[in-house]
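re: ur question from earlier - yeah i can do the single chain one, its not a big deal. heres the input i used so u can compare w yours
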Amino acid sequence: MTKRYERLREIRRLDPEKDFLEIYRLTVTCEFPWDITRALELALYRTYAVPSIGRLLARTAELTERSQKRYDDTALLLDTVLEHGFESDRGRTAIRRINAMHRSYDISNDDMRYVLCTFVVTPKRWLDTYGWRKLSGHEVRAFAAYYRTLGARMGIQDLPQTYDDFERLLEAYENEHFGWDEGARAVSDATLELMGSWYPRPLAPLVRGASLALLDDSLLRAFRYERPGRTARGLTRGALRLRARAVRLLPPRRVPHYARQNPEIKGYREGYEVADLGTFPTPGVRGCPVPHPRSNGSPGA
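and the output i got, formated as tokens:
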């Protein structure tokens, strides 16, 4: 058991404000690769419940008609920054691709900042509940610094500075903006279908049921899903906690595991170029290609 915590001791010897990339990389790729993948999936899923986000995603059809490609590209672009760093050629290319895609649409700074908050808050909450250990204070500070840096590279304004700032902003934004939208529900259904497609067909209904059992009531209300029963929730969450106990008994991972190695990435069996990932503007179309009404002068989609 002593060896199981040796990497945590290594992390605690680092400075979370200066060494945040190294800390984040160790935590994500060595300590919790499976958990962080699930947590980031849930983080992105949460954003659909903000109608301006879910509606835009539905109108682009990226998540309803090309779900697997959108999943792959998002995971691989974020993974490139994590693996190679902000200053590397590959990391810069990935961030340029992310920024170019976002600039193709009218997305408000508030929505962009909220999405960033989900990347910080959701993993901590997931690991506190289902991880083989909770995040240390060092790791929490490093997560905030990592995404603060990513947000700055994406041109997001008025970034939160600490984890508590990220969490307060997330909670306030969800309380104000979570709500029903038909397009957002379609994106949610397509995402649940995608997750089910990763397993043998007979298991798809079980995967959907387990996924819904992990959602909090605010998400279920926003998408108008029936609240899963106590048994379904208990079995799903109990299975994850049982997994955590088993993982705690394993020796520490020696070789980092990156998202590009995940079996859920289906579309790039022959490899990929970072510059080719994502979506590109439609030829001849200037400005946001998705028509939508503006409200209160906001650029939000």
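Residues 109-130 form the longest helix (22 residues). not sure if urs matches, ping me
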